[in-house]
Amino acid sequence: MRQTFGAQDTEDASETDLAKHNEDDYVEIKEQMYKDKLASLKRQLTQLQEGTLQEYQKRMKKLDQQYKERLRNADLFLQLETEQVERNHIKEKKAAVKEFDDKKVELKENLISELEEKKKMIENEKLTMELTGDSMEVKPIMTRKLRRRPNDPVPIPDKRRKPAPAQLNYLLTDEQIMEDLRTLNKQLKSPKHPVSPSSPDHMPTTPVEVPSQRYEARIEEGKLYYDKRWYHKGQAIYLESKENTKISCVISSVGTNEIWVRKTSDSTKMRIYLGQLQRGAFVIRRRSAA
Description:
Layout: H1 2-50, H2 54-132, H3 174-189, E1 217-220, E2 223-226, E3 229-231, E4 236-241, E5 246-254, E6 258-263, E7 269-273, H4 274-279, E8 282-286
Antiparallel strand pairs: 1-2, 2-3, 4-5, 4-8, 5-6, 6-7
Helix pairs in contact: 2-3
């Protein structure tokens, strides 16, 4: 019986020693694993500081590629923007030069039109003075001057208003007016007609055409008001005449008493006076600028 209990105690003691030995081995293995892991981390930290860590090099390579790609895109964007700015600059310069040339041509045409109009007015006034002779001149009245007595007051000079120059309202074209004035001048200078200028024999034989319809036409602030519509420079129109001709034109300039139009067929220019538009010698119609 005692031998049985002794054998059992020995067996229990051996099992306890084995369990204790296994526990010591586990702790030792765990500590060794911790040391290995810590050593690995220290080694990686050292490689990271030296720049030789594989993971670090891999990520740095990726960042470097992204950096170079971004620089390349920035250079391309700068090049495109520079080219666009240069193109806009060239375009603006060309537009400025074209506008300057157009304004210069327009100014020259307007000045030429005004000078030609003044020249015609002067020629008409000169022709009118030649026709009327000395009737336009104010002749002084011959009076006797008496000696003033010592007690008489000093005479006050007579201030008379000078007669206003004659003004003509032309209902005919310039060519018709010039022709009538030449005919009248010939009749006045002819010895076969010694009658007074107020006689009906001195009136021109050319009948004056009374227009059947008059149009409202005027120019204000560089624009033409015609037949209840406004027209401006560069507007596309149709120009109709009494001969039933219809011409496609563009208004090239608007003067003070006339407009210039350019034919779209051959780019020739015509001058139309307000009087011609008012009499209906020419009729303006709008058209689309297609």
